[in-house]
Amino acid sequence: MTSHRTSRSAATLGVLALCTAALLTGCGSGDTVKGTPVSGLFDPFEVGGLPVTDGPSDVRDGAPPPAGEVRDTDGGKVDQLMLLTTNDVADFWQQNYGSLPGAFRPVQNFLSYDSQNPQSPMVCGAKTYERPNAFYCHRERLIAWDRGLLVPVGVKYFGKTSAAGLMAHEYGHAVQRMAGLVNPRTPTIVFEQQADCFAGAYMRWVAEDGSPRFTLSTGDGLNKILAAVIASRDPVLTPADAEMIEEGHGTALDRVTAAQIGFVSGVSACAAIDLDEIYQRRGDIPMVLQVDEETGSVNSGQLPIGEESIASLVETLGFIYKPEQPPALSFDTGAECPDATSAAPVTYCPATNTITADLPALEEMGRAANEDDGMMLQGDNTALSAVTSRYMIALQHQRGLALDSATAAMRTACLTGAADREMVEPISLPSGGNFQLTAGDVDESVSGLLTNGIGASDVNGNAVPAGFTRILAYRAGLQTNADRCFDQFADE
């Protein structure tokens, strides 16, 4: 399981991924799961303790007009929207800064530029032409944004609340300095993870109707915010890029996790993020692509999705979990299943104990996305993790557990994360093959959970409603093992 992406700046990544809204319209091959809500953080019908909601994520009707000034503005709608976001994020911090050291001082210096204009000015010593970005410049206590490309594309595909999320991240960098949480020696990854976390805490405030200016639904609205977070990850690192482990912006899992910490636990938890905390939650997930010992080249190619690779994955899972009755693997999509119905490209039939893979569909799902064309992140493990999830359904069946419930869907996501963790170390198979998780594979799993939901669905392909909660359950598995998943998501 390998992956490769073209290296590019984090700012460009953020722009490219804003063309992915079409991929976020569904949450799985079936409907969403039905069932009775349960208490706690892992309720499948909640998002961090809030109910799953659909509806507008937009500027509120009757929102107060934007107040303040923007340097170099063209006076257009984009800058008016961004000024409104500065007012809103400042209100959030006026209400929520109290747990941090020091005192909150609102940022009052804002600048707009057009990255498509060759005459776009130097800002804080940096060029802005062809640099679609938003950033905080500490020496000038300035927040700047690109009105020409970055913000308009984001608004088009993710709605106006995404602009508020962008501002919340940049404003978070200013708050770090006010509170003395960082200094010039602080690794970049800590700067960025804290800011992602602060943005998550702000989004919680909006979702709870704390904002007088914006709304955010915890279903589709938050899904789109998370898609932008995933897109703004660092490219997969090679050994030559190893310093980016601490000096980059983070993987998709890093960035989503930080946003979820803020959304669930608030500002104080964000302030506690440091390098040790980041390393602790990363654990042994591979961060850098491996080098082939024989050729000396970086193993950066995608593993082709085909009968051989899928069979190798199923053999690997059997080697790890050793079920008494290993599920059979079939590529015959015409076979009927009397006790499960799913239109997913990979299914499990309890009656026959068979995993059936629709090979052409999985090949398409596992094809590395050309993100330069605005595609959402996907790759070999987007498809292979879907297969893993059906093997996890088979394990549940052997334990006599319910397979068609919300609990089963959450358990499946957790078990899929646990299985990915098991494959971090190379596994030599009896058949002579070798299977191993590589850098970037977990990000592909996370993206699949958000865009198709198969990895957090029950035997009928019915997914947990909110992408946020699917990823939360998968992350729980990454941090533990299968037995803990069975305990945490036990049938009532």
Automatic annotation (TrEMBL):
Give the range the annotation lists for the signal sequence: 1-24
Q: Where is this region: Disordered?
A: 52-74
Q: Which PROSITE patterns match?
A: PROKAR_LIPOPROTEIN
Per UniProt, the keywords (alphabetical) are: Signal
Q: Which domain of life is it from?
A: Bacteria
Q: What is this protein called?
A: Peptidase
